[in-house]
Structure formats: C-alpha cells, structure tokens
Amino acid sequence: MGNMTSPLSRRRFLGFAALNSAALLGLNTISTTTASAATRPGGPVPAVIIGTGYGAAVTALRLGEAGIPTVMLEMGRLWDTPATDGNVFCNMLRPDGRAMWLKDRTLAPLASFLWMDVINHDIKRYPGVLDRVDHGDMSVYLGRGVGGGSLVNGAMAVVPKRNYFEEILPAVDAAEMYGKYFPRATSTLGVNHVDPDWFETCDSYQFARLSREHAHRAGLKTTFVPSVYDFDYLRREEAGEVPCSALAGEVIYGNNHGKRSLDKTYLADALGTGNVTIRAMHEVRAIRRDEARGYVLTVHRRDDSGEIVERTEIATERLFLGAGSLGSTELLLRARDTGTLPGLGAEIGQGWGPNGNVMLGRANHVWDTTGRTQSGMPALGIDSWDDPEHPVFAEIAPVPAGVELWVSLYLAITKNPERGHFSYDPATDSARLHWNAEQGQLSIQQAKALFDKINRTNGTIYRTDLFGDTRPFENRFTYHPLGGLLLGEATDDYGRVRGYPGLYVTDGSLIPGSTGVNPFVTITALAERNIERVLAEDRLTPVGS
Ligand code: FAE
C-alpha cells in the first residue's frame, strides 16, 4: 500500500475497503457511506458515468476529488469475490463460466492447435469477464466488469510515438499531453518497467529473448514494453515465493494476482474520495432528455443468470459516456435514431478502426525453444513503426500452455487508414459495425512484409494451424476497438457532445481508429486532459452547494 499518510494512499485504502465490504455483503453497490447517502436512487444525481473502464475511471476520480456526487453504472460484475476454488478468476487452460460474458463456450482468439479444437471449452452461461461481440468480418473483444478492459488486457502500457499522436489528433496540444497528461496517466496507473538484468536470465521471458534474436538477425529493432503488471511480483512468482498468476496461464480471463487493474488504482482512489458510488450489473439501455430532470437513463439490472431482474430510471445533470468504443457509440446511435436525442448529428458512429491488429504465429526450429514457463504478460515488442512502407509495432506474445510448443506468437499493430462505421438496426435494437475483410488487407501486407523478412533470415515458416483454418494471419478480431464518437467531430475538442450541453464522451470512442501502440495509456491521458478542462470551464455542482 505504500505510504499511508499521503492523501492519495489514504484515499486508495478507503476505496479498497469499500470494494471489499461490498463483496462481503454480496451487494452490487460499491461506495463509502457518505457517497451512498448523497446518491440515493430516485433523485437526480449531479453526475453519472456509464462504464468503469479507463476513460470512466479517470473521470470518476477527478469528479470525486472536485466534490461532485457521482454514480457509475457498470453492466458487468464486481470481480473480487473468490469462487469455490478460492480464486476470483479462472485461468486460460481450465476456463469456466467466469471466463466469458453470457456464452456457452469460450471464444479465445487462438482457435485451434494443429487444426484441432483443443483450446476452447464448453462453459456455464454466466456474466463472465471477457466478451466477444461479433460483427460479420470483425469480432471485438471487450472487458466486462468493474474495471472494464483493465481486467482482461495484457497490461502493456505504451505511450504512443509523438509524431503519430500529432497525426491522429492534430487538434490536441501534444506538448501538453507529453509534458503533463501522459506522465499523470502512467503514474496513477502504476506503470512499471522490467529489470533488464533479470529479463536476460529469467525463464519467464525465454520466449521473448528467442523472438528478439530472430528479429535482430533480420536487422529489426526491439524495445521493452512498460506494464501495469507488477514485474517484481512476477520475479517472485518465478522464484516460487508467491502464488502464480502471469505464470499460471492467467491473462484474458482475468488475473488473480500481480496486475494493477483499475479497481486497484483509479477506481479505488475515486471511491476513496467519498463522492463516488459504483453500481455493478447495471446496464444503461436508453438515454433521453427531460427539461426538468436533465438526462434520464433507462437502466436494466441483471442477476447472475443474465436475466433482467429490475428496470429503473436515473436522472442526472451531467452524463459522461465511458462504455467504450462499442458501448458509448451504440448508446448515442440508438438515442439519435429512436428519436430520444434527435439533435445528434451524422458524425455519431463514424471513424471506427481496429488499431490495425493482426495476430500470427511462426514455427521455430526444434533447437530453438521458447520454454515451458512463459509470462502471460508481454514485455518486449518489435518496433518497425518508422518503416515508411510497412509500419508495424508487434508485441511478442506468450503461448502460456505450460509445455514447449515451438511457436512464436505476435500481435502486430499496423498503420491502416481504412475506417468502418456503425448504423442502428431497429430489428435488434443494436448498433451494426460496417467493416469488411478487404479493409483489413493492408494490415496483413504490412505484417507479412516484416515477418517474411524474419522468416527468410531464420529459415522459419508461418504456423497455419492456429486460427481455425489454414490462414497464417488473423485480422478478423481486434483487442483495440477505437472510434465511433471522434474528438473534434461528434464532440468538441474536449469530449463535449455537440448540441447537448452536459453530455460528454470520455473513452476510446474519441480516438480515430488507431494509436500505433496498445491504446489504454492514450485513452487514460486524453480523459485526464478533457476532464481537467471540463471541470475548469463547465459549472458542475459540488456537494452541499
Ligand atoms: P473499456 O475499458 O472497454 O470499458 C467500458 C466499460 O463499460 C466496460 O466495463 C463495459 O462492461 C461497460 N459498458 C459497456 N456498455 C455499457 C452499458 N450500456 N451500460 C453499462 N456499462 C456498460 O473502455 N490495451 C493496452 O493498452 N494494452 C494491452 O496490453 C491491451 N491488451 C488487451 C487484451 C485484451 C484481451 C483486450 C480485450 C483488450 C486489450 N487492450 C489493451 C485494450 C484496452 O483494454 C482497451 O483499449 C480499453 O479497455 C478501452 O478503454 P475504454 O475506457 O474505452
């Protein structure tokens, strides 16, 4: 916990206490007592935030610090109660209902091994932590739960290249971002760096050292990737001193230890202000505007079987959308096209992209082993982003199966200017993403140019058995959905939705389809910048005024 006398750590401690007592009582409402009194259901609430991912969590902390009573509505569960096996989350090798959001079978991106369907398993339907939303040629992976994507992601905390940031968000002052908001985001998120000496000798990253050797032989550059997984905890896992998490096949279905997910950082701090309440298992379905009450939300509460058990309304003066690229975009599209917020413009639903994601595997020679022990948390990337023809930043990904498989796996981020868009489908009352396989072709060409070079130099080949058929490159899914409500288009330059005072966007839907690196640090820093301006300029009502 660090130094308990500083205001931030005291606040974080109070927040942890609130999270834990909620779990103990089996409640879906998480807050300190003062906050729950200030935000009783029924009366209008000064501020509501939809979602509890990165943009939402930043906004909650800063509103809470400013003394503004705030309710967060999150459709997923609070993840801190151990199940009968003693663990909060399940691992990737023996998944159960906790793995996925209301599915009968797991849907891991690596679909097969030697073309065999050995990776996915039938599971009990349950509001689990990872969701996959399918839209034809594109499936989007998302975190569900208090902490959003931070619960399931690979913890890679990368600040984008400054010249590319300036290219994608030209209206944002880059000097201010790099001087103030990126440092603020990385320090509050608890970003840390692997000890380079330990990296060279440990078992956990033998797989990464092998890929590095192959990349260097091909004349390519590699770089360490900062993380919100505690590298000191990982070192102790490998030394056998603490329970394993990154070394126990835990990543995409949650980590039981070691990871500084948002419930350990921003959200704990937000709750500790005493002004923030989180309601888990509460999904916002509709938003309308009422002259007297402000924004009125229709909210569905679900039980553990996924059934809706309550339909309520909550009214607020200020509404912050932090439901992620798919979630926030869908809410505003539905509001526009069903006529509840009819003044929303044609910009809603535009500018979506998968951050150029392409996954691929290479087959290693028998003498080139990756090791049985592999950290689930990547720590190294191949950085070819400055290549003028084939810009790629490829994370060296683990295959944490616990046995030697002679596979090197990568998630490549490519620079693809193609964008998709969403439309509202009244038949299903949901947003449809329009993105086709052809739009992803450029990403494959870019990744192929880089990995062809590596294969040529090392005498290796692609694996064609990993993605359900014989394709060597998988770009039908993304971990990095971005866009839909672009900054400066659907909103002003600080996330205020055009035409609707008091309505704001805080999350990845502001970013136009690409960041060139893993996106959560960019989302966090942008949310820090925007909420600082909103608090300075818009008149929000603190407690007691
Ligand atoms: P997000 O974190 O998605 O949070 C949205 C929240 O809103 C979720 O908790 C939803 O359940 C909730 N929600 C949605 N709709 C509603 C509704 N109608 N009512 C109530 N609640 C709702 O949003 N990024 C990196 O930078 N590094 C990585 O290593 C990395 N690895 C990843 C690995 C995986 C498997 C996945 C899925 C993602 C990964 N990402 C990574 C992406 C990263 O997690 C993602 O960009 C952020 O989580 C997006 O943050 P947002 O604030 O936009």
TrEMBL record:
EC number, as in UniProt: 1.1.3.6, 5.3.3.1
Gene3D superfamilies: Cholesterol Oxidase, domain 2 (3.30.410.10), FAD/NAD(P)-binding domain (3.50.50.60)
Keyword Isomerase: yes
Protein's pathway: Steroid metabolism; cholesterol degradation
Residues annotated as domain Glucose-methanol-choline oxidoreductase N-terminal: 143-166
Signal sequence annotation: 1-37
GO biological process: cholesterol metabolic process
Keyword vocabulary terms for this entry: Cholesterol metabolism, FAD, Flavoprotein, Isomerase, Lipid metabolism, Oxidoreductase, Signal, Steroid metabolism, Sterol metabolism
The protein's required cofactors: FAD
MF GO annotations: cholesterol oxidase activity; flavin adenine dinucleotide binding; steroid Delta-isomerase activity
Pfam families named among the record's database cross-references: GMC_oxred_C (PF05199), GMC_oxred_C_1st (PF22500), GMC_oxred_N (PF00732)
PANTHER family hit by this protein: CHOLESTEROL OXIDASE, FAD-DEPENDENT OXIDOREDUCTASE 2 FAD BINDING DOMAIN-CONTAINING PROTEIN
Family: Belongs to the GMC oxidoreductase family.
Name under which the protein is recorded: Cholesterol oxidase
Organism expressing this protein natively: Saccharopolyspora shandongensis
